[in-house]
């Protein structure tokens, strides 16, 4: 591509799903996705998100993408975010800046008073800081070679494991654990409001969520912890969500359940597992270190108050 080529920014549609997936996979290979999932998300936006997506085309080819929306899992109003990505070979032309400007205009139009952005590289950090954003957190994304798993720990007393599929008729216990654990995660924004209907429409219905691998740990008959797993078609899996209710923490339930799930994934032919946690989430980082996860990518979150 020559530097003289011009680019265009336009609204994205479901027909861009494959191209958007290509961009996302190149920039965030640690996040499990598929073209089918991208298309599904175009048709199933969360209620209250008021989102919009845009692509950048260079010589007729999609080389960049941004998604801008309001956070729907928080009680704090006006919290916007954008996920903006540009292929490496198309950078240096102002495409990223144009996409961010477009995303920002949309967020302002739907009432955002705060905007968060995310980046995995130094150039993105410099651009965010130049625009007045400040860093508020860092997520540690890690990868695990499933051929070198430690043995499954001893089963905690009274604990049994059940697949998500057994809760298909009523997944409310899974939602309850996810909502409670999400509210406890470190963040500059409280994720303390997860409506069941919206969760059911998004997280539960996600086409890459594997309901046979994903597991609920039940302690003396009470759902206590969850290990949600997303799958790809290329031998990789990713953590959708792992969480434990407060009253069941410190008993080794999460370590037992997650190790068991990873062993099952390996037995099914998966080769690598990805996960991500806030850099201050010491309990989960400790479990992942014990499991053998290794550093893959750091993702910085930036914030600007309008």
TrEMBL record:
CDD domains in the cross-refs: NAT_SF (cd04301)
Top-rank taxon, per record: Bacteria
Domain N-acetyltransferase positions: 7-155, 159-306
Single GO cellular component term: ribosome
Keywords (A to Z) from UniProt: Acyltransferase, Ribonucleoprotein, Ribosomal protein, Transferase
Record keyword RNA-binding present: no
SUPFAM superfamilies: Acyl-CoA N-acyltransferases (Nat)
Gene Ontology molecular-function annotations: acyltransferase activity, transferring groups other than amino-acyl groups
PANTHER family (alphabetical): AMINOALKYLPHOSPHONATE N-ACETYLTRANSFERASE-RELATED-RELATED, GCN5-RELATED N-ACETYLTRANSFERASE
Protein name: Ribosomal protein S18 acetylase RimI-like enzyme
Phylogenetic placement of the source organism: Bacteria, Bacillati, Actinomycetota, Actinomycetes, Streptosporangiales
């Amino acid at each position: 591509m020559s530097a003289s080529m011009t680019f265009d920014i336009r609204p994205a549609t479901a027909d861009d799903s494959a191209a958007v997936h290509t961009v996302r996979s190149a920039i965030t290979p640690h996040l499990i996705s598929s073209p089918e999932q991208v298309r599904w998300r175009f048709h199933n936006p969360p209620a209250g998100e008021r989102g919009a997506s845009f692509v950048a085309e260079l010589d007729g080819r999609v080389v960049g993408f941004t998604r801008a929306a309001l956070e729907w899992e928080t009680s704090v109003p006006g919290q916007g975010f954008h996920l903006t990505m540009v292929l490496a070979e198309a950078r240096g032309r102002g495409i990223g800046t144009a996409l961010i400007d477009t995303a920002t205009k949309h967020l302002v139009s739907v009432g955002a008073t705060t905007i968060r952005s995310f980046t995995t590289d130094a150039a993105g950090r410099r651009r965010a800081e130049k625009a007045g954003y400040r860093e508020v957190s860092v997520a540690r994304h890690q990868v695990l070679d499933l051929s070198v798993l430690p043995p499954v720990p001893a089963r905690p007393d009274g604990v049994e494991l059940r697949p998500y599929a057994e809760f298909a008729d009523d997944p409310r216990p899974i939602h309850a654990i996810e909502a409670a654990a999400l509210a406890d995660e470190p963040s500059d924004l409280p994720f303390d409001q997860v409506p069941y209907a919206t969760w059911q429409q998004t997280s539960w219905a996600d086409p890459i969520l594997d309901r046979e691998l994903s597991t609920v740990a039940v302690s003396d008959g009470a759902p206590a912890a969850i290990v949600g797993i997303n799958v790809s078609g290329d031998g990789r899996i990713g953590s959708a969500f792992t969480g434990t209710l407060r009253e069941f923490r410190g008993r080794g339930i999460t370590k037992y359940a997650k190790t068991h799930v990873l062993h099952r994934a390996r037995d099914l032919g998966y080769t690598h597992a990805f996960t991500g946690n806030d850099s201050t989430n010491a309990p989960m980082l400790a479990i992942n270190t014990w499991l053998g996860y290794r550093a893959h990518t750091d993702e910085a979150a930036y914030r600007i108050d309008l």
